## 1
Amino acid sequence: MKISIVGGGNMGGAIARGLSTCDLFRPQDITVINRRASKTAEIQEFNPELQAVTGDYSSLATAYIVVIAVKPWIVEALIKEHLTGKRPDGQIVISVAAGIFLEQLQTWAGKDRALYCAIPNTAIEVKQSMTFITGLNATEDQNRLVLNIFGALGKAELVEERLLGPATTLCSCGIAFAFRYIRAAMEGGVELGLYPQKAREGVLQTLRGAIALLESNGSHPEQEVDRVTTAGGITIKGLNEMEHAGFTSAVIRGLKASNNG
């Protein structure tokens, strides 16, 4: 089975690199189409078996799966110019461009093929993305295939299209919010006297532990908070100070602002 990825930038390149180390595709069956030769060189350097090309869209005529990983304002022209001609039966087109909707894809690509919008986050580079997907004109087998592709790069779920925006905000924008918390905690650790590297190691391992507890216990975060806090203790004092500063409200308002953006 052949897959062509149009756009070898941050997202497209990460997808190609991730899939080349999975069992779903042979590296030689993965083509990455770039506009710039420098991106082609980066892909080839990672894995010479990957078919990285510059400005050559001929693979789209034979690929069973096409992933569009270009800037949103390029998607329409790309589809009209390169994806309306010869193609294999059952070809699947997946857009990972933010702000592109299924109705637009259908208008540009036609009603006779399976279409998907998928929104990974940048952790796809290390196979830890949370990817939400919505589809149109697709069979159950095609749904399973697309879920398997993104499931190999982290976790993946099919959702109704109306939920794709909120899901994008929570996970694709949300990863940046998580990084900001990490940065703030690191800076706090340094102010308390830890060396920067020790603060970084401590914060990252603490977060790994928090995630492991939630996944292992199937618990609500507040249950785990209650296990840490004691009456009159230092943890509850810190938590209350953070809430006085609007911690929970700031997170929710940030998510809502991104969703409305």
## 2
Amino acid sequence: MTAPLTITGLTITRPDGRVLVDGLDLTVAAGSVTALVGESGSGKTLTGLAILGLLPQGLTATGSIELGDEQVIGRPENELRELRGTRAALVFQEPQSALNPSQRIWRQIHQVLRAHKRVSRADGRRRAVELLADVGIPDPDTRADWYPHQLSGGQKQRVVIALALAAEPALLIADEPTTALDVTVQAQILTLLRDLRDRKGLAVLLISHNLGVVADLADTVTVVRQGETVESAPVDELFANPQAGYTRDLLAAVPRLPAAPSDPAPSDPESPEPVVRVEGIRVLFAGTAALDGVDLVVGRGEVVGLVGESGSGKTTLGRVLLGLQPIDAGVVDVRATRRALIHQDPYASLDPRWDIGRIVVEPLYIAGERDDRILRERAADLIDAVRLPSDVLRRRPSELSGGQRQRVAFARALASAPELLVADEPTSALDVSVQAGVLDLFRELHAEFGFAAVFVTHDLAVVGEVADRAVVLRQGRVVEEGPARAVLAAPRSEYARDLVAAVPVPDPVEQRSRRKGIR
């Protein structure tokens, strides 16, 4: 039986001759999931686009890409359009941008159906309802008439999968299909993809940098780095005994949830002097409570991890602690006179017109420092503190990698010698190995400078790596609080238990065991 996808010697080059993908070999069998794993710039997404003949203008693909018995490379565009959707379909990373906000859901599915065969409005709507039911949308007949903004993030991703399935392809290309989703929603989408594989015999090419997701879903894995294949193996074999040093480094860089503590945490440990205390705070947005009766104390030198899903109030609470968000009720007692923020997106938070030397001392300039010699010396000290070379001072943000930009954000935050640092998802936009370096840097800076920190994140394993105490938020309320490792290893609240259970671990054998336990 011909495999739904066979790639042989795929090479993708730029007009200047630079090779972006170099001689990739890959096969995805019917009823199986093959994962293409790598960090930014590895060529994963370009490979997915090449399979559908959708490479950006100027890039050239050579070698062989076969969808069943149909060759993709060199095929005319009108014939490629026939293959897209029927032989292979793409599930996008960001469902919000993949859907038309001005069209009802059933009409968008109807458009896909009409692109391949004559389908009446009535039949199109009926088929749309069937597809929505097939991907687990509740009350599909009603929701078929909804617009994308009326659906949750997980429901939107299910709709994107329904669109991909509309023309009954043999191959589904899932490009980071859970990156934009909360961990519990991610678990639901992975279950859906597994079910489609088993029930329909669907072949899935999973493109991902998340090794926990790969361990949970994949049957075989191909690891790529800077366009070159590092190694390929069955998932159990690759995770248990990686042959390449790069693969071993990737696996070692993944934060792990802590094991169950052998000794119970003390019930009332001695608390450090507080730098900020909030009691009963309430924040309303258009009459809806983003925070509802939240109490929190952050001690001097303590690292508190704020954990929760989208809409839990994590970022709003961080802004309250910094004095950036007015409250509607409650008390905020701030004893830290110097506070600083590290944003989620280091590129968006750095002025692209300025060089790094100017960016990192901006807080000092705002505070009134005008002596150029002092500013230059302080900039050099700050860049050295975050382990960057001195020549970075003369560069602009666009000339730096994502990890380097986040280090610059740390340097700028340290400029004012903060007593309280709020880090809002500081590693979520980074590759796993870069994330590991930034977490190491955070621990080193915390040990050196002794600031208190509130680490806002949706990644529970990261909290276990850096935090002394974890606070779990849900819909604006604290549902659990305690020593970080104890909360993650033995959560008391049902919601925290659900969060921990939904985190895929980078071990396929353990992950299968956890899935059975969850059922």
